[in-house]
C-alpha cells in the first residue's frame, strides 16, 4: 500500500482514540468524591455498555466475518469467547497475588502517600484496552479494503467512516468508565485521565498494523473479536456487577446497567 493509503486509517482510528480521550476528560468535570449511589449507577452503566458492546461490536461481527470467509461462526465465536474468559480468569488470579504483595509493601511504607490501582481497576483497564484492539483492527481493515479498491467486499468509504464514527461514540463512555472510578479511589485527576486515555491508544496502533499485515490478520479476526468479548464479559460478571450491588436493596446499579446496555445497543444498531 502507498503512504497516502495510511492517512484515512490514521484519521479514522485517531478519531476513535480522541473520543476515548474525551470520555476520560470527564474526570475534570466532577468533584473529588462521587456519591456512592452515583458511583454504583456508573459502574452498572459501564457493565451494561460492555455487555452490549460484547454482543453487537464483537460477537456478532465475529460470526459475520467468519461467514464472509466461508466458515462457521460458531467455532471462532464460542472458542474465542472461552479463551478470553479463561485468559482473564488467569489474569485475575495473578493480579490477586500481585496486589496482595503490593498492599503489604504499601502498608510497610508509612506516610508514603503512593497511589496504586486496585485489582478491580486493573482488570477493567485491561479489558477495555483489549476490547479496543479488535475495534482498531476493524477500522483499519475497513479503510484498507477501500484503499485497495475492493468495494465488492461491501465496504465503501462511507461505510468505513460510519464504522469509525460509531466506534468513536462507543468509546466515550468507555474512557469515562475507567477515569471516573479511578478518581473515586483517590487517584489524581491527571493520572485517572491518563489511564482512561491510554486504554484507547491501542486503536490507532492496531489499525495501522492491520493495514500493514491485512492479508494475514483477516483469518484470525473473528477469534480476536470473540476473545475480547469473553474477556469483557468476565470482568463485568466478576467485578462490575458485584460492585454495583454492594448494598442490598439498592437498585441504582441495575438501572444503570439497563440504561448502559440500551444506549450501547442503540448506538451499535443505528450506526451499524
Explain how this protein is built.
- With 272 residues, the protein is mainly alpha-helical.
- Helix content is 78%, strand content 0%.
- The protein is built from ten helices and no strands.
- It has helices at residues 6-24, 36-68, 74-108, 119-147, 157-184, 189-198, 202-212, 214-217, 221-244, 252-271.
- Helix 1 (6-24) packs parallel to helix 5 (157-184), helix 1 runs antiparallel to helix 6 and helix 2 packs antiparallel against helix 9.
- The longest helix is centred in the middle third of the chain and has 35 residues, at 74-108.
- The radius of gyration is 19 Å and the shape is globular.
- The two termini are 27 Å apart.
- The model is unreliable at 109-114 (pLDDT under 50).
The outline comes out as: globular
The largest sheet, given as strand count, sense and whether it forms a barrel, is: none
- What assembly state would you assign to the polypeptide chains in this entry? single chain
Runs with pLDDT <50, length 5+?
109-114
Derived from helix and strand composition plus strand pairing, the structural class reads mainly alpha
Helix content: over 70%
Amino acid at each position: 500500500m502507498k503512504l497516502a493509503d495510511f492517512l484515512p486509517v490514521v484519521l479514522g482510528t485517531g478519531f476513535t482514540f480522541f473520543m476515548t480521550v474525551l470520555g476520560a476528560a470527564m474526570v475534570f468535570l466532577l468533584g473529588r468524591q462521587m456519591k456512592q449511589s452515583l458511583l454504583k449507577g456508573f459502574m452498572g452503566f459501564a457493565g451494561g455498555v460492555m455487555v452490549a458492546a460484547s454482543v453487537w461490536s464483537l460477537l456478532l461481527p465475529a460470526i459475520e466475518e467468519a461467514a464472509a470467509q466461508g466458515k462457521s461462526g460458531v467455532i471462532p465465536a464460542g472458542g474465542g469467547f472461552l479463551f478470553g474468559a479463561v485468559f482473564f480468569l488467569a489474569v485475575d488470579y495473578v493480579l490477586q497475588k500481585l496486589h496482595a504483595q503490593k498492599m503489604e509493601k504499601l502498608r510497610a511504607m508509612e506516610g508514603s502517600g503512593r497511589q496504586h490501582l486496585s485489582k478491580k481497576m486493573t482488570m477493567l483497564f485491561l479489558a477495555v484496552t483489549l476490547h479496543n484492539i479488535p475495534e482498531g483492527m476493524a477500522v483499519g481493515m475497513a479503510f484498507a479494503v477501500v484503499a485497495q479498491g475492493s468495494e465488492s467486499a461491501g465496504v465503501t468509504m462511507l461505510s468505513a467512516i460510519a464504522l469509525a464514527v460509531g466506534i468513536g461514540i462507543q468509546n466515550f463512555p468507555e474512557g469515562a468508565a475507567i477515569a471516573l472510578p479511578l478518581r473515586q479511589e483517590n487517584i489524581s485527576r491527571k493520572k485517572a485521565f491518563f489511564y482512561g486515555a491510554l486504554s484507547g491508544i491501542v486503536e490507532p496502533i492496531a489499525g495501522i498494523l492491520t493495514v500493514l499485515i491485512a492479508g494475514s490478520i483477516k483469518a484470525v479476526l473473528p477469534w480476536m473479536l470473540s476473545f475480547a468479548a469473553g474477556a469483557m464479559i468476565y470482568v463485568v460478571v466478576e467485578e462490575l456487577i458485584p460492585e454495583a450491588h454492594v448494598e442490598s436493596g439498592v437498585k441504582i446499579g441495575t438501572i444503570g446497567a439497563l440504561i448502559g446496555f440500551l444506549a450501547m445497543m442503540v448506538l451499535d444498531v443505528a450506526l451499524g
